[in-house]
Amino acid sequence: MDHKKLAELLFPDVDKTPEYYEKTYPARQLPEGALVTRLAPSPTGYIHLGNLYGAMVDERLAHQGGGVCYLRIEDTDEKREVEGAVPVLLDVLSYFGINFDEGACKAGTPGSQPVPSEEGAAQRGAYGPYWQSMRSSIYKACVKKLVAEGKAYPCFMTEEEIADIRAAQTAAKLDPGIYGEYAKHRDLPLEEVERRLAEGQEYVIRYRSEGDPSKYFTVRDAIRGELSMPQNIQDVVILKKNDLPTYHFAHVVDDHFMHTDIVVRGEEWMASLPIHEQLFGAMGWEIPLYCHTTSLMKIDDTTGQKRKLSKRKDPELGLSYYKELGYFPEAVREYLMTILCSDFEEWRIANPDKDYNEFTFSPDKMSDSGTLFDINKLNDVSKDVLARKSAAEIYDFMLGWAEEFDKDKYALLKDNKDMLLKVFDIDRGGEKPRKDLVYAQQIFALIKYFFDETFEYESEWPAEVSAEDRKEILKRYAESYDPADDNSAWFEKVRGITADMGYAVKPKDYKKNPEMYKGHVGHVSGVIRIAVTGRANSPDLWTIQQIMGREKTLARIAKAAEA
């Protein structure tokens, strides 16, 4: 077989060589030790926690050493592509603090060029195009080289023929695939190829594997260390019928010419390492360092067993879940860092006020088994993060969230800024700041009693206080209430009402001699608290009333007394 003639026959219009592209995409000039990483999603329209999980690894590894993190769009699978998915992806990742130095970007980004095929998207950087569908000429030049060297060949087998082969392999309990005797077209004579081409038969280009299953190769994984695996024997497709490459070949070519140092991807791709190691070798290129992250797991509520987070079963897998609920992006990132790196929590305890970006991230501290995602732990981390925020930061975030997701709440928040800054400042700061704020929806639910539009009675009245006594307590309280009273003077008046109406001023007295009292001061103040806030539990009631003001406080008391 004249392989060079075959290459010219298959690719007559390809006049560039891999050597040409080596000059087009020279080695990057970066500081010593700096790394180039990439996020390379498919534009499916669904952005999940795993995307952010991997993107954080990419971003930290690159930026903590002065390197480059770029975004490449792997859109060679036309069936899965969703129109407009890239701008959405960029918006969501940016919301969670992931920004790229080059690659796909939003239209209008300084220094960018529009991408005609993707409305609202653009690209920037010297190593593009960053859409794989736009890199066809590069892939073909590399495939042509492999064909010319006898390392790849055209395969004209139909889907029906391949299905028959797989059925026979299954019946014989053999590994499925096109290899060995099943690779029927790897040695077609040139004349036969010419005849089939003349007849218009469709074909793919397969890599000609010379692998030996009894031989092993070794490769280092950034998380798992050295891996030893059997050589690949499959004649995998590297160029499809539509002239687009498969993932296997495209990422090899792109990571080489874009000078990617570390490839961060899910552990489900580990099984493909033998193919990728072989393809890098066939091209004469150095293989990058792979970092195979573990799957995100959860404890199933029904079985109590670990299982992978599921798009169908678990809404918390989608990043939109956290955005719509109004989690602070920093809280989500901080939580993911705790499950990404085993020593992050210890670092955070020692450095409570530092930005998490000051933590030195290392992939060898990542888990090599399933990573457990726990929404309750996320909420605990969120409480800690929000405890470090100022009232103004919380207000601004709440306002931005409500503007996007809840126009009614937005109007209330916008019209009551001064009041809300005081609300968010309750018990903030000090050695033991309040830690009950988690995410925007939950925060609004906590403070909604400040607004007449959303006020409601959520707690039962204290059972120890009769309806008649409740009305009398509220009457006396309204008559004595003076917003000029400090906290001590205010509470002394409550104690006075308590004693005058036959309730114990001290809860321990009631507990010791319950027959002597109707109840105690906690029951009396509980009536007032529910009247004002609708709840049996709330932050300091005196402070709440100071924020509400005399008019609203007395209006609430009157409303409760009437009820």
Verbal overview:
The protein is built from 23 helices and 15 strands. By secondary structure, the chain is α/β, with parallel strands linked by helices. It has five domains: 31-134, HUPs (Rossmann fold); 137-293, Rossmann fold; 306-387, Glutamyl-tRNA Synthetase, domain 2; 391-450, no CATH class; 467-562, Arc Repressor Mutant, subunit A (Orthogonal Bundle). The radius of gyration is 33 Å and the shape is elongated. The model has no long low-confidence stretch (mean pLDDT 94).
Short overview:
The chain is an alpha/beta fold and 563 residues long. The protein has helices spanning 3-10, 18-24, 49-63, 85-95, 136-148, 159-171, 190-198, 247-257, 273-283, 319-325, 329-340, 344-350, 375-387, 391-405, 407-415, 417-424, 440-447, 467-480, 487-500, 507-512, 521-533, 541-548, 550-562; strands at 36-39, 68-71, 102-106, 113-114, 121-124, 152-155, 204-207, 216-221, 225-230, 237-239, 262-266, 289-293, 296-299, 306-308, 371-372. The strands form five sheets. It has a five-stranded mixed beta sheet. The chain has a three-stranded antiparallel beta sheet with strand order 6-7-10. Strands 14-13-15 form a three-stranded mixed beta sheet, with no helix packed on it.
Low-confidence stretches: none
Class inferred from helices and paired strands: alpha/beta
Radius of gyration based on Cα positions: 33 Å
The CATH class of the largest domain is identified as Alpha Beta
Q: Biggest sheet: strands, sense, closure?
A: 5 strands, mixed
Count, helices: 23
Q: How large a portion of the residues is in β-strands, by DSSP E?
A: 5-15%
Distance between the termini: 96 Å
Across the major sheet, the strand order is 1-2-3-5-4
Count of discrete structural domains = 5
CATH topology of the largest domain: Rossmann fold
Can you tell me the CATH superfamily of the largest domain?
A: HUPs
Number of strands: 15
Helical amount:
40-55%
